[in-house]
Write a structure and sequence with these properties.
Layout: H1 2-15, E1 31-32, E2 38-44, E3 49-56, E4 59-67, E5 70-74, E6 79-80, E7 88-92, E8 101-111, E9 114-126, E10 131-136, H2 141-148
Antiparallel strand pairs: 1-2, 2-3, 3-4, 4-5, 4-6, 7-8, 8-9, 9-10
Length: 149
């Protein structure tokens, strides 16, 4: 029962993020890149961000995020390979600081009545010469529930 409540809170938290049509990842097809294994699994043209992954078995793994010449590797990220559950990417100011964050939602499991997702948030740390994103931890749904009691 607790897992169902946690999943509901996570989905509810994600649905609170204000979206517009340009923020959604419209690319639902995997596009092969230089290597036969690595594929584009999402992009945000407004932010000049592209997300790559390798399809292995029933999962997307070994993620790589590119932004303005910067590259971040996430070998432990995982997403199911079903195209209906491709990673979702958003570029929004979710903490009202005047700077947009990158939000990446990965689906790790799904089934009848179940949808497990991980949310990764990258805050924009602008410098005088460039934009650099740094991952910040999203609140654990259990912590959110306990704070509301």
């Amino acid at each position: 029962m607790n897992w169902l409540l946690i999943k509901f809170v996570l989905i509810a938290a994600i649905s609170v993020i204000p979206l517009d049509a340009n923020a959604l990842n419209e690319n639902q097809d995997l596009i092969p890149i230089n290597s036969e294994e690595e594929q584009v699994v999402g992009n945000l043209p407004e932010a000049k961000i592209t997300l790559y992954a390798i399809k292995k078995g029933g999962n997307l793994t070994k993620f790589r995020l590119e932004s303005n010449g910067n590259v971040w590797n996430f070998p432990n990220w995982r997403n199911v390979s079903n195209p209906a559950y491709n990673p979702k990417m958003y570029y929004k100011d979710i903490n009202s600081d005047g700077s947009k964050e990158i939000i990446i939602v990965l689906t790790t499991d799904y089934g009848t009545g179940i949808l497990e997702q991980n949310v990764h948030v990258f805050h924009n740390n602008k410098t005088n010469t460039e934009e650099a994103f740094k991952e910040v931890l999203a609140d654990n749904p259990i912590t959110i529930i306990q704070k509301k009691r």
